[in-house]
Amino acid sequence: MRFIKENLIRLVVFISFSTAVLFILGCSDSTSPENGQGQIKITMVDSPAAYDKVNIVVTRVEVHKAGSDSSSGWVVINNNTATYDLLTLRNGASVVLGDNSLDVGHYTQIRLILGTGSNVVVNGTVFTLDVSSAAQTGIKLNREFEIQEGLIYELLLDFDAQRSIVLTGNGQYKLKPVIKVVPTIISGTISGKINPLNAGASVYIMSGTDTVSSTLAETTSGSFKLMALLAGTYSVKVSPGNLIYNDTAIANVVVTAKQNTDLGTISLSLK
Fold it and tell me: Where does a domain end: 116, 143, 177?
């Protein structure tokens, strides 16, 4: 009798355990992404601007999945509030705005939600930066991309602070963002070094007569690096702030996707 009772207990325990496992597996299948997941990584860089600082408060970063209306389908990839001084994000410096998993599929937009506290610093004086529209509806950037299972898709946001800030007639600084969105898979970089250090040189990447990107060479090292450049052929113009030196230009500089083109040391001649 005791043997039969022990077997019955073992049977009940086994059935209970099996039922629990099946329940857990059923729940797991219902919550897992149907088609698996990939990853999105969004990095921000900037160009020089005539301010001491441009501080932007970002509270949330989202992407929009295709097939959804304008109010739904937004997926949060970063909701940690952070303040970024755009003017520090040049010559190779950058910041990761979002790095997260996403369901596979087609996406059409990126949205940055800004918070209070954004400002610009001009000649040591702090001025409030009006980002009211960006705080309500966000900065929406149209860029279609595909998330594939097990793969990372990387995007560079090239924020043009100089063109993005407008001084209104009543003395208010207002944000009207100008941002270029470039996938790293089709973009590369150009770097180099300007000699002498006291040249105070600006470096411009030109496509024909159009300025594609620009930066200021570092005053302590003379080095520069321009990012988010679409693969192609450009000319590089160096314009010294110190007027005792001549401008110079380098033609036919080739940018290859996901690679850096190093121009080495560019020596400026005296006038």
Answer: 177
Cβ atoms of 55 and 118 closer than 8 Å: yes
pLDDT digits 0-9 by tens, 157-187: 999 999 999 999 999 999 999 999 999 999 9
**Peptide bond just before 183 cis, omega within 30 deg:** no
What's this model's pTM, rounded to 2 decimal places? 0.80
- Name the nearest CA neighbour of 154 among 224, 96, 219, 81: 96
* In a shared domain, residues 217 and 230: yes
CA–chain centroid gap for 182, Å, is 9
Tell me: pLDDT of 263 over 90: yes
Convert 111-148 to b/e letters by CB count within 10 Å (16 or more is b): bbbbbeebbbebeeeeeebbbeebbeebbebebebebe
Residue 131 domain boundaries: 37-177
More confident residue, 138 or 28: 138
Which structure tokens are listed for 250? 């380098």
Sign of CA dihedral 90, 91, 93, 97: positive
Q: Are residues 175 and 165 in contact, defined by beta-carbon separation less than 8 angstroms?
A: yes
